[in-house]
Each structure stands twice: as structure tokens, then as C-alpha cells.
Amino acid sequence: MEELLEILSELHPEVDFAAEQSLVDGKILDSFDIVSLISEINETFDVVVPPEEIKPENFNSAKAIWAMIEKLRDEA
Amino acid sequence: MRTLLEYLDNTASLYPDKLAFAGGDGREHDLTFSELNALSVRIGSFLAGKGLFRQPVAILMEKSPEEVSAFFGTWQAGCFYVPLDAEMPKLRMLKIMEHVAPKALIYDESLQELALELAGKQEGTVAVSFAEASACGEAPELLQKVRERVLDIDPAYIVFTSGSTGMPKGVVANHRSVIDYIETLDDALGCSEQSVFASQTPLYFDACLKEVITVIRCGATAWFVPKKLFMLPVQLVEYLNEHQVNTICWVVSALTFISSLKTFEKLTPMTLRTIAFGSEVFPKKQFALWRQACPEAVFFNLYGPTECTGMSCFYKLERELLEEEPIPIGRPFPNTEVLLIKEDGSLAGDQEEGEICLRGTCVTMGYYGDPQRTAEAFVQNPLQKAYAETIYKTGDIGKYNEYGELVFVSRKDRQIKHMGHRIELGEIEAAGDQLEGITECAAVYDNDAHKIRFYYSGDLDKGSAVVGLKELLPRYMVPNVTTKLERLPHTPNGKIDRKALKQ
């Protein structure tokens, strides 16, 4: 989780990612962020985020992103 | 044909009940051609009733079918539109308002507070909501008078592009240039009343003309894709399929967004037949994924500066390209000529590099209220001095390959293309220089990672630096990576060493 928060704050150092709940719906992230974020996640956590997992409920908060990563790790 | 209004006259009578524009992030009111026409007539009547003619009218609306009717409404009154957008930082909008001093500002109710603030700072600007302007009674006699007075060389719009000093440049284009552009573009891409577009670009750029004017000219249909879908690749492709979209003109980064996230392993666009992209390098691997996913589609690379009314050159991808070969920008549209001019003012020879200069009706009227910067880029054709003829110097270096196709080589200056947007790195640095606590700063572009990197020294912490830049710059110009350094590297003669920063 710490590593994920680091990746996120590298994208937007001014956003409080531990608290923010609407990263996608609030348009805090944009399409460029999603592409960078997913390649960072794939590399750092040794998972492959499939396209169908890129949905608002998985990306609206750091907690949701983390839950998705853990799920992908379990499945692997 | 004199103005773009004649396209609307024609399609509103040929296809009154056909859907013209739908969707968007605004108030989701889809419009048929007759509805759009009626709205534009009422907005035109409102503006003409205020005595406005050949005046700039600012438009501050969410991307929506109604916004298109407001554009045509300004033309009904013989005026020209200046699009603003809630995505622009407020300071940028204030600069534009001050520079253009529009006589009227039409706004969405949802943006009322911002609109009134913008208009309040500007003496002589009437702020009116879209609802109020479009409820005005029709004034056919006034609008008829406008039609008699207006010329095809009257401005249609001003759109602002990045300027290296921090002051954006307002490109003024007239009706004749847009007509010339759209007719040749539609021929090249094969657009017709059968075309169904999914529009990706914001309406405050000239890039939107491809869909907006083509729809009105041909009686086609365009769906305004909600912005959020450009974060959700599977839903985005589902959206294209659901609306049976057959034509897209998108920036490369929107296309690679879909392909790089492996979306095609899940589903592919079923109905796309024409895929146009432009203004940036399309990575070969990503392009191959698109071609494989849409085997029936025809692909076009488009190239052109805002100063020449949208796109000026096109390349239909047919022959196999070599691994290391960039996708050519091809050849100019009919009625446009490319001159490759060398430093000494003469034409470049075979395989020689030269600055891409454009001549033709596409050349716009220069930068609004800015004769100095206009004179730097819009110049007399150096190849003939017998009569007045303006060409536009793009600042892009190009050459012809062995097939006689034009290829983009590099930029002369520090302008970059990022996510389809044209950006002066100097404008980012000018914003950084304005921030309290920054001693020195530099912006460089990482071509491999497609990232804008911003380096600075000073007391300011990184978070505040990013917040400060976001207040001054449009979202697409905000650096992707910001790094604070003890001090910036310098060259022996004292300039910031940008080459060292790039390594």
C-alpha cells in the first residue's frame, strides 16, 4: 500500500491519495495518468491489470486500487 | 457560397429530423438539424438585437450539442466566436477576455458564477446565459441584413494556442478558410451523410471542426464522447460499438490509450471504417495493434497547424512502412501548397530538409490584436516579390522521402506535441517563473516516455509548485513529473543546460 501511495503521489504530489474517494469520477486522474499508473502497477507489483478491471469502482481510491492489486495477486 | 451558415440552411431543410449531435459532458440534450438551426437563429437574433456585428463573442460552455448551436448563433449575427472552457485555468481565461474584449459572453447556467466574474472584470461585455439567449424571439429581418453584409473573409472564430512568452496567441480564421478546409478534408476522408463520428477533442480547439462542420455540411451525426470514458478503455470501445461509430479523428494518445492497455484482447471496435489521427508520432507497435483490430478500416495521418485552419496535409496508410520509418504526413490537401524553404530562402531540393511553409486559402488571418507575432510567422512568399501573398511558416522541418511523400523531421524551436496538444515549453517556464519561491526552472520533453519534465530550484516545496502550475496552465500543459533540484545545471555561457537535464 505504501508503495502504491508513492506511485500515486509521484503523479499528483498535491493530492491526498490516502483520503481521496473519487479519483476517476472527480476527474482527478486523466487518461494519461491511467496509462502511467497501470504500467507502474504492472511493473512494481508483478501483476497484469486486464482492461476490464479498469473501471471507476477499482480506481476511485487508493484503497480500491490496492484491493484490486491484491485480488490480481491472489488469482495469479 | 459565402459563409458556413449555408451548410446549416441546406442540411436543416434536407434532414430536419435527423440527429446531428448527441451526448457530451454538458446537459445531454441531443439536437436534430432543425432544432440546432432554430437555436442558432434565436441566439443570432439575440446578438443582432444588441447591435453586434463582426464582433468577437466569447462562449463558455460544457462540450455539448448546444455549444455548437451557439457557434452557429454567433455566425447568424455576423459575429465570430471565442471559445473558453471550464478546463482552462481562470487566469488564462482572464488574459483571453482582456485581450479580445468580447462584446458578449454566452455561458452555461452551470458555469454562471465563473462567467459573471469573467464578464465583470471586462467593461462592455454583456454576459448572457445560453437559456436566455436561445429564448430570444426570432428577428428574421435583422438576420437577413446580416446575410447581405457579411463577407466570406469575415472571421468565423478565434482559437488560442500556446505562446512561448506565456501569452497565448489567438488565431483568427475566416469562413472561406474553413469552407476550403472542410470540403477538401471530407473528400479525402470520404465523409458523407452516412458518417457517424465519435468526437474526442474539446470544442475550444480548431481540431473539433473536422466533426462539427462536417456533420453540418454533410448531414452526418457526431457523438460527443464523455471525457470520463478516456479513462475506461473497455467502456470506450463499447461506446463506439453501441453508437455504430464509423469515423474517428482522434489524437494519437487517445488511440494508444486503448491499444496499450490491451483492450483489443477483450473486444474490438466493430463498426469503425475511417480512422484519422494526427499531430504526433504514432508508435509503430500501437499502430499495428489498431490495424489488426480494425482490418476493414482505412487509416489517415493528418498534419497541420491551427494557423492554417486545422489540417493541411494527409497521408493514407497503404504501403507497408519499414520498422524505423516514421508515418509520413503525405501531401497537402487540394488548393494547399507546401513549400519547403531552406535557411537562405530558396526551395529545398530532393531529399533536402527545409521549413514547411504553407500557402493557400487555408492560411488564416494571423493572431488577434498581435501584429508583431503575426509578422514573424505570416510572411510574404519569399519565392516571388511581384504581388502581395502571405504564406505561413510552421516552424516544422520536413523533407520528401523517396516516394515523394512529405515527412516531418523536427521542430525549429522549443515547441512540442504532447497528448495531441501543441505546447511551447517556454510557456511552462514562464508560468514557473511567476511562482513565488522558484529561483530557476526549466521544462524539457522526454520523447521516449512522452512526459513533460519540470525542474526547479528554490524554497518552494514540490506539492506547492505543482498546485501553482495548475493554477496558471491548462491541464494538458501541467508537467507530468516535477523535480526539485539544489541547483539547475548550466552551460559554460551561463544558460540553463537543458540537454543535461534531458539525460
Description of the structure:
The complex is a heterodimer of chains A (76) and B (503). Helices cover 57% and strands 0% of the residues of chain A. Chain A is mostly helical and 76 residues long. Chain A has one domain (2-12, 21-75): ACP-like (Non-ribosomal Peptide Synthetase Peptidyl Carrier Protein, Chain A), CATH 1.10.1200. In chain A, helix 1 runs antiparallel to helix 2 (31-45). The mean pLDDT of chain A is 92. Chain B has 503 residues and is of the alpha/beta class. Chain B has three domains: 5-224, 3-Layer(aba) Sandwich (Rossmann fold), CATH 3.40.50.12780; 335-411, Roll (Luciferase, domain 3), CATH 2.30.38.10; 415-502, ANL, C-terminal domain (GMP Synthetase, Chain A, domain 3, 2-Layer Sandwich). A five-stranded mixed sheet of chain B has the order 11-12-13-14-15. The mean pLDDT of chain B is 94. The chains are: A mainly alpha (76), B alpha/beta (503). Chains A and B meet through helix 2 of A and helix 10, helix 11 and helix 15 of B.
Topology summary:
The complex is a heterodimer of chains A (76) and B (503).
Chain A: H1 2-11, H2 31-45, H3 56-59, H4 62-75
Helix pairs in contact in A: 1-2
Chain B: H1 5-14, E1 19-23, E2 31-32, H2 33-49, E3 56-60, H3 65-76, E4 80-84, H4 90-100, E5 104-107, H5 112-120, E6 126-129, H6 130-133, H7 140-149, E7 155-161, E8 169-174, H8 175-189, E9 196-199, H9 209-218, E10 221-224, H10 233-242, E11 247-251, H11 252-260, E12 274-278, H12 284-293, E13 298-303, E14 313-316, E15 331-332, E16 336-341, E17 354-360, H13 371-377, E18 378-380, E19 390-400, E20 406-411, E21 415-418, E22 421-424, H14 425-434, E23 438-446, E24 451-458, H15 462-472, E25 481-484, H16 498-502
Question: Which short descriptors sum up this protein?
Answer:
heterodimer; A: about 80 residues; mainly alpha; Non-ribosomal Peptide Synthetase Peptidyl Carrier Protein, Chain A; B: about 500 residues; alpha/beta; Rossmann fold; GMP Synthetase, Chain A, domain 3; 5-stranded mixed beta sheet; 16 helices
